[in-house]
Structure formats: C-alpha cells, structure tokens
Design brief:
There is one protein chain. The protein is α+β, with helices and mostly antiparallel strands. The protein is 28% helix and 28% strand. The protein has six helices and nine strands, in the order ααββααββαββαβββ. Strands 1, 2, 3, 4, 5, 6, 7, 8 and 9 form a nine-stranded antiparallel sheet that branches. Helix 3 crosses helix 5.
Amino acid sequence: MAFDFKKEFKELYAPGSKPAIVDVPPMNFIAVRGQGDPNIPGGEYETAVGLLYAVAYTLKMSPKSGYRIEGFFDYVVPPLEGFWWMEGMKGVDYSRKDLFRWISALRLPDFVREEDVAWAVQEATRKKKKDFSRVEFMTYVEGLCVQCLHVGPYEDEPVTVELMHQYASSQGYMIDLSDARHHHEIYLSDPRKTAPARLKTIIRHPVKEK
C-alpha cells in the first residue's frame, strides 16, 4: 500500500475544528512562486499548480522512467499547500487579492533530493514540451504554529483565523508572521469539484511565546 502523509501524520493533516498548537518539523517541497489574484481563470496561480503536479507525478513515476531515487518507496502525492503574504502587512487582506504574494507547494518524501527534482523538471520539460523551470526545490522551516480546520469558502477564513489567534493568546503565545513565516493553507478539497460551503482547508499561523 502506498505511503499516505495524511494518514501517517494526522496531527499535521487531520486537525480538529478547534484550534491547537502544533510543532511542525522542517519539510521539503517542490514550489512555484508568484503573485496576484489566484482566482483568475488561466492565470499565474492556476499555471503554477499545473506545473507542480506535472513534476510531482514525474517524481512519483520515476521508477517507470528508469530513473533511480535512493530509498524510493511508493507514496500518495500529498495535498496542495500555499504560503501567502502581502508586502508591508502581517497577515492578508482578502479584499485585495491582487496584492497577494504566494508560494504554491507540494510536500516531498524525505528521500527526494534537490538533484532528483532537477531531473524531474528536465524530464517533464522533455516529455511535455513545456517550460517547467519555475519549479524549485524548497525547504521550509515552520516550527511552532497554531492551526485549525476551516470548513467553508476561502473568503470566510478570517473568522477561523480570529479564533486561532484568540486561542494562541490564551495559551501564552503570540502570532509570529514575518518575511520568513507566512500564512499557510493546506487544501484538503478540490475547489473544482467541491461546493464552497464544504471546502476543507487547514490554516496554520506561526507563533512564539509571549
């Protein structure tokens, strides 16, 4: 059976509907950086997601390509994640999506190295006759965070975020958003197939002790 991150790391991928404090270990990702409104059809964000999945499945299917990754085992591609921020602002303003800066990302198994990602980018480019050079290997050190499952439209996230911040404060923590620690979302639902009211999104904010 393929290794499934969501099942093996439930504290990170299956949080409850009430906020909790979690210590997130360093993780490796494939990532594409961009800016602007993610809801524009055929826009930069949609393009970035397509690039990520093509490279992700090139890595997953690498044994069939004859490429050997040391320590490889079969796995389920983890859910899409996003790191979001706006220049000069702590947090995000959902009414100004045009100001978004973002990193769209897919987690990698620990056995995937930077050189393996470089191979997958070249292989995807060769097979699909398309430029995948925007896809990069990224290590993200997140550390101590408050997180919560948000159910509903993305535009309603501020309500959940406020509950998270109140909980963190009650536990002796303060929010620590910065140039290196961003508003983080993990998408458990496909918005193309799920009604907005039923979308499930993990929201994670970095914290530090008061």
